[in-house]
Amino acid sequence: MTTQAPHSVRYRWRNYGLLGAAGSDLFDPHAYGIHPGDINSSIARGYLCHYRVSWGKLYLSQVNIGLNEEDRARAARGEGPVLFGTLPEDDKVTISAYNLGKEMQLEELTVYRGHRYRFRNVVIPFSGGLLLATDFIPEFMGYLDFRHPVYEFKTVHELDFEQGRLVRAADRSRVMAQFRREFEEMVYEPLRSEYRWGEDDIETVLARAEKQEATRRAMNEWFDARLMFKYGWW
Predict the structure, then answer these.
(1) Alpha-carbon torsion (144, 149, 155, 156), positive or negative
(2) What is the per-residue pLDDT for 93?
(3) 9 has which bridge partners?
């Protein structure tokens, strides 16, 4: 499956990926009668949100939604679907790409990025925790199927909201650094020293898989104990 693009959050003058959410009433177009269709393979949910935290509140600044054919026709006529009093704009971009079927001929392609809604003062009444992350560390990408991908980022913040108001904020960057150190000691180094490609019998492979699963559970428990909320994949 294609890696999914996260929603984004503007916080303290920086842009972050929204890597975790635990709570209720985060924006969902279904709640407003809009049922997203396809945008592209990296946005399987059919919509992409851009939030900002400003003056202690959580705002929805923009959302791109993949509209179905009927709603696209309505949007083309300037009739909606309306969201928070705003009409959508067709968001398309032209890129250059090689067509492999035509002797590597360079062509101009139009890519649909959904229909864009832009807002100024839409507060989202979310209650719960958000995990924000930036400064990706490539060498830690996807070693194990942990619940949270935030350990792959150097800078991580956790925000606690009540009805859209920010009530607590914590910099979790040091927690993630500690997680990565223990990850190296508990997981990566043993895997690298024990693994022999194509040389192990099935019993050895199954025993290693069982050990890895136990390690995953232990690391997830360690992780959850150091955050305000328990998060799933976002």
Answers:
(1) negative
(2) 67
(3) 16, 51
Q: Residue 233: is its pLDDT beyond 60?
A: no
Is residue 65 within 8 Å of residue 88, measured between CB atoms?
yes
Per-residue model confidence as pLDDT tens digits over 174-228: 999 998 887 767 665 555 555 555 556 667 666 766 776 777 777 778 878 899 9
Q: β-pairing, 105-118 with 89-99?
A: antiparallel
Give the number of other Cβ atoms within 10 Å of residue 102's Cβ: 9
Please tell me the distance from the alpha carbon of residue 179 to that of residue 185, in angstroms, as a whole number.
10
Between CA 46 and CA 37 the distance in angstroms is 5
Every domain of the chain and the residues it spans:
27-123
The C-alpha atoms of residue 214 and residue 110 are separated, in whole angstroms, by: 47
CA-CA distance, 56 to 51, in Å (whole number)? 13
List b or e across 120-147, with b for residues whose CB sees 16 or more CB atoms inside 10 angstroms.
Answer: eebebebbbbbbbbbeeeeebeeeeebe
DSSP letter for 2, please. Answer: P
